[in-house]
Amino acid sequence: MIDAQRTAGGALVLDGNALRDRMVTEVRREVGELSSVPCLATVLIGQDGPSQVYVRNKHRQAQLAGMMSRNETLPHDVSQVDAEDLVRRLASDPAVSGIIVQQPVPIHLDGEKLLALIPVDKDVDGLTTASMGRLMRGVDSLVPCTPLGVLRLLQYYGAQTVGKRAVVVGRSHLVGLPLAVLLARKGIDATVTLAHSRTDDLVAVCRAADILVSATGQARSIGTEHVKPGAWVIDVGISRGESGIVGDVDFAAVQAVAGAITPMPGGTGPMTVACLIQNTLTAWHLQH
Ligand code: NDP
Q: What number is the average pLDDT over the span 272-283?
């Protein structure tokens, strides 16, 4: 068990770093029992600073999980044909278990076309149309890592979800939309509202939530007025300001009202990487 910490205001801290470490350790144990070593391959195009940090971190966690990892880099001005060639090679390489094309790709490239070349059983980001389709149909699939990480945090720390109201703010394919589907699934059984920039009276919508997830990238836009006392508040948003990384949630204020809350950083970010590592193990099983 992870030692439960509380904020000064009494909210349970949903510690993503600690849960990531547990998950990676468990994956390492399972990897030790496999007939071959899973391999995570990343494709990084160009020199985007945050992407370089994310990719380094993914490789570090893959190695800690006892996996192999391959970092394929391409220059910023690579042609579509050459980028597609690389993804095709990784797709047909039996030694590669999982493939990520790190987003965003440079503007002259067709990122959707690159994504479409990833076989569904190697789609460890869970972002291809085929994986999304499986998610909608409730078929076993590789689920997008950030939504899966949110779900794992809620489950590990014992959030009540059955019959509860969950509000997800943000409807992107990367985070909000798949998370809404996951939370509404049988077995999780939340009653989900998917809010966005055109939602009327967002404060009232959020205030009805037992579980409130914000994934908008609007720094500190979720304050105490959005939070029902005792609600579980999950911050996915990342904004980079002069004072460093800031979430969507005004942590200092909201922690005094919430029943449980993720720190930012140290909440959903590490869980995204943990779920990527878990997905790579799942991908290995799908291929064997
Ligand atoms: P997108 O820009 O694709 O989507 C943002 C969503 O937020 C949209 O649906 C948008 O609504 C909604 N939105 C924007 N402003 C408001 C507002 N004022 N009120 C209500 N809704 C609003 O972003 P992503 O989903 O890709 O990422 C969201 C955030 O999560 C970003 O900060 C990103 O950096 C972070 N992130 C964090 C990860 C982690 O591991 N913690 C992983 C991935 C992303 P509309 O559709 O109407 O435009």
A: 98
Nearest ligand 1 atom to the CA of 216 is 7
Q: What is the pLDDT of residue 242?
A: 85
Decide: 166 and 210 in contact? Cβ < 8 Å: yes
**Contact call for residues 120 and 128 (beta carbons, < 8 A):** yes
**Topology of domain 144-268, CATH:** Rossmann fold (3.40.50)
> 258: helix, coil or strand?
coil
270 has a pLDDT exceeding 90: yes
- Residue 64 predicted with pLDDT over 90: yes
Which residue has the least CA distance to atom 6 on ligand 1?
Answer: 170
CA–centroid distance, 172 to ligand 1, in Å, is 7
37-119 against 144-268: fold identical: yes
Q: Does the CB atom of residue 217 touch ligand 1 within 6 A? A: yes
Q: What CATH number is given for 37-119 in this structure?
A: 3.40.50.10860
